[in-house]
């Protein structure tokens, strides 16, 4: 088992900054006893709290999570070997290296990038990583050599490739590479001439701001995107893709307000997202932005967990489960695997906070079944599995095996 965990890193940085437990706890508005439990590894840390702690300690969140994870099982994955190649491709985006053979035609590359985008949504990082650098290189050459509509289409697919790179880098913990990929996504989207693609690229940038705790900047950017979408169509005539993308913007705004300690504003934004979801017949994935009734509920649960109201989050799952005639709400089978895995990871942390260790491990197991790679590299999984191992009360070899698999 990895001897280092988030709590130990918090303690180390706290001491380096010459802060007492009481003073740091006051700065991040939690009790000293909770901070002591976090430092001991007995409690997991929500993304919102992790961001606040990192800001007060003047480090990036990745410094506290220990990302990227290069140890144990992860070092055996070929996915890590892709990172240097992706750095090279993103560095030479406007002056690419020569290819040994001519690039494939745009329709072939577009089909491959479509498959890569689907892999991204399903958390299939290892398969995606093997193909991504080469496809990006070929698309770059095609985009530079073509003209007119073909060039715009090529840049549109290139933007999707950069988005996949952002997701891969973020999930693996290479946050500097992730930020570069976000900028490249915006660059390619601008050249594609697709207004909703440009909104999507800016949405990704707002997400990066949120993770780093730049709440005001993220809020202003997202509010501008909200207005931009409204300008695209006369009132009452928005297309389904426009509704879906705007709904995703509302959800991101709700998360910004929740993490910034503004629950009333978060509730208003969530209500706006709910109204948008009611205009759709079902869940959608326009521009790879999952939005609809299911994702709305997933975000509602995530917001409750993020703000520390884990009991209410679990109660909401039971309430929605009653609508399905089940003990708890269950996700639809056709939901993107990464989205479903993320939900169960969040719920596992909530169960642990409420003292349900068996339930927490069960949710981790479900997350692994849905999307193994996404689960394996997620920092919350390490926090939760590590805390369960340290508690030592689940009582079977399955937990120990899971912890080893996750690199804990």
Q: Could you please describe the fold and organization of this structure?
A:
The chain is an all-alpha fold. It folds into 3 domains: 6-65, Orthogonal Bundle (434 Repressor (Amino-terminal Domain)), CATH 1.10.260; 77-193, no CATH class; 194-335, Serine Threonine Protein Phosphatase 5, Tetratricopeptide repeat, CATH 1.25.40. 71% of the residues lie in helices and 0% in strands. It has helices at 6-16, 21-27, 32-40, 47-57, 61-65, 82-91, 106-121, 125-145, 148-172, 175-192, 195-211, 215-232, 240-259, 263-277, 293-306, 310-323, 337-353, 357-370, 372-376, 379-391, 397-406.
Total domains = 3
Helix content: over 70%
- Structural class, by secondary structure, is mainly alpha
How much strand?
A: under 5%
- Per the CATH scheme, the topology name of the largest domain is Serine Threonine Protein Phosphatase 5, Tetratricopeptide repeat
Provide a compact summary of the structure.
By secondary structure, the chain is mainly alpha-helical. It is built from 21 helices and no strands. The mean pLDDT is 90.
Topology, pairings included?
Layout: H1 6-16, H2 21-27, H3 32-40, H4 47-57, H5 61-65, H6 82-91, H7 106-121, H8 125-145, H9 148-172, H10 175-192, H11 195-211, H12 215-232, H13 240-259, H14 263-277, H15 293-306, H16 310-323, H17 337-353, H18 357-370, H19 372-376, H20 379-391, H21 397-406
Helix pairs in contact: 1-3, 2-3, 6-8, 7-8, 7-9, 8-9, 9-10, 10-11, 11-12, 11-13, 12-13, 13-14, 13-15, 15-16, 15-17, 16-17, 17-18, 17-20, 18-20, 20-21
